[in-house]
Amino acid sequence: MNMAGPPVGQGRVIGLSGSALDRLMPMHLWIGASGLVVRAGPTLARMAGDGLCGQPLERVIALRHPARAATLDLMLRLQGTPLKLNLTAAPDMPLKGMVVALPAGSGAFLNLSPGLSLVEAVNRFDLTLQDFAATDLAVELLWLVEAKSAVTTELKRLANRLNGARASAEARAATDTLTNVANRRGLEAMLTRQAASGRPFAVMQVDLDHFKAINDTHGHAAGDALLQEAAAILRGQCRRRDGVGRIGGDEFVLVFDDLVDPRVLHRIGQRLIERLEQPIEVNGQTCRISASIGVALSTGPAPTDPVRLLHEADRALYESKRAGRGRVTIAAPG
């Protein structure tokens, strides 16, 4: 579209096509002598919607500074003054503008820019670099925003990777490599968290009976396989919120969250013994073991010392051994 009555430059008339005008000022408004919008830049039309042409200027924009009706007469008096305004179609998005009068009283040109609301405008209206003039500072700012976004994304990815590696290393440091249950360090952390929670809990210490004989007869490889099988049996008797740890040799500890009923714990212990006493095939050999179990309870309102609780469970365990092995003993409170 050829523009009749183009703006004046260097004392002579410059003819501009509509497409050239759109490239130079994608957010312009051409206001005719009657005060109606003659043409709108493509970016502005995208933000304000179709149907701008033929609309009175005061219905398209609202001046915020100076706060007056946006008539053509007022705009001509504000020529060259930085304006603060917004589109009536997007009243919550502030814009900047500058108006220039056209020759011979033929109207005015109003060029707009998102200014500080650039990022919001880009996100809200899905704008791209093609929606701004190549010389517009907005292009540089968009590059900076994109660069910052890329760097931020990469930093987040790296942080997640490092956090994952750290969490993995901490988990490995607290895990028994043979049985894949908690080691002594992991068990101590588990008991500390449990005691700090204020919830009642029980500690069950399990010692495998006759394990040394199996280890001496069939070798350490068979003993390791037997320990792995025993750990799997113990895990199978726990709930998701309970924990299992190996504290050395053939001794394991189970932590039962919010479970302190002696009868229930005795049944669990008996079930564990019955399961462990079933023949276990290890490297083609049939092995038979049993278990002695001691249980200590944390039921008081005050946090229980995990070390003392383990000591009570250990004493109850040896009561089971002295009574003939293959049984469960519940430690008396205190």
From TrEMBL:
GO molecular function, one term: catalytic activity
Organism from which the protein derives: Rhodovulum adriaticum
CDD domains for the chain: GGDEF (cd01949)
Pfam families recorded: GGDEF
Top-level taxon of origin: Bacteria
Protein name as it appears in the record: Diguanylate cyclase
PANTHER family given in the database record: DIGUANYLATE CYCLASE DGCT-RELATED (PTHR46663:SF4)
Record InterPro entries: DGC-Regulatory_Protein, GGDEF_dom, HNOB_dom_associated_sf, Nucleotide_cyclase, Rev_trsase/Diguanyl_cyclase
SUPFAM superfamilies cross-referenced by the UniProt entry: Nucleotide cyclase
